[in-house]
Design brief:
The structure is a homodimer. Chain A has nine helices and no strands. Chain A has two domains: 58 residues, Arc Repressor Mutant, subunit A (Orthogonal Bundle), CATH 1.10.10; 106 residues. In chain A, α1 crosses α2 and α7 packs across α8. The first copy, chain A, is 73% helix and 0% strand. At the A-B interface, α6, α7, α8 and α9 of A face α6, α7, α8 and α9 of B. Chains A, B: Pfam families: TetR_N. Chains A, B: GO terms for molecular function: DNA binding. Chains A, B: This is TetR/AcrR family transcriptional regulator.
């Protein structure tokens, strides 16, 4: 096959094969992480799910954390709500999207795995990127009415109204709790003495 | 040695030995969990730190989750602030105690391990107990001014102002952020339409 960039066909074939392996293994590792938990992400289990040999996996991803890091990186962008411009509605909807992400994508297991492995540099970078991406829209929205420490506080508080019940009790907050949280924050801004 | 309850001296000696082993191993497992993370809690590592044989550990605690569960159970009560009765001060101080617990006792690693293993029934029970105990005082204090969904929301939000930066970025909120969060919640109550 002509490549036009001077590489030999076999290089392109090799790259494509490695890419395909990587995609397959990343998908399998993410599936094991989200359905079985981080402790289940082993070379044996991921190889089994992916349909590759353990030897192949160990060659490219020597340590378990390499598999977990690749799995999380393969998630791509965090889901966000398309803003309408009405702040209360948008804050509520963004939290509902986060809640759905935990229910459907098991983002709680992703958060947990990133925290568990954060002493590894590659995971600390991934954790930073994923969480910054995840909170980006909340910062934008709350940044319209808060700044400084109060902005950081408000973002953490609304993140927490979904993340804390999920991580601490395995429960999702219902809509009434999400709405109550948003109203406390909006009321708390409107009447702050600062 | 006379025991007065009909048991033989050798039973009492055996019980004492098992108790001592349990306490030693629990302490070692907790140390490994908090200083090295949950993935490091293996029979080999805990046996090394505790100074017992792996065989002894496998006999009493067959699975890794048994070691982790025992470690967390050995923590006992969660630390709380002694209330002064001034709500704003007490809320701020309780969050500072929680923050200190993460810094000094690595409560973040405990929370993370409980979330990771929550599909195991013994860990789900421990997680419920530890987190309920941990949030008990926050519920009491915020229960003075909130009820229903707003109370659940307020507790999760203030828990989140410490827990989220810790779990998501490995950072502690500073006093300014903690105070801002408490003020948003107190202002948010004072002026809510409900």
């Amino acid at each position: 096959m002509a490549t036009g960039d001077g590489s030999r066909p076999s290089d392109t074939g090799e790259d494509a094969r490695v890419s395909r392996t990587r995609a397959d293994v990343a998908r399998a590792a993410l599936e094991v992480l989200t359905t079985e938990g981080s402790d289940a992400v082993t070379h044996a289990r991921v190889a089994e799910v992916a349909g590759y040999s353990k030897t192949t996996l160990y060659t490219h991803w020597p340590a378990r954390v390499d598999l977990i890091a690749m799995a999380i990186e393969s998630i791509g962008e965090m889901p966000h709500h398309d803003r309408t411009g009405v702040l209360r509605d948008d804050l509520i909807a963004e939290l509902q999207v986060f809640r759905a992400g935990i229910v459907e994508m098991r983002l709680d297991r992703v958060l947990s795995a990133m925290a568990e492995w954060a002493s590894e540099e590659q995971m600390a970078r991934i954790r930073n990127r994923v969480n910054t991406d995840g909170q980006r829209q909340m910062y934008e929205m709350l940044g319209e009415i808060f700044d400084g420490p109060a902005l950081d506080a408000a973002v953490s508080m609304l993140t927490g109204v979904v993340a804390c019940p999920a991580m601490m009790y395995g429960n999702m907050p219902d809509d009434a709790v999400i709405e109550a949280a948003v109203d406390v924050v909006l009321n708390g801004h409107a009447h702050s003495k600062r």
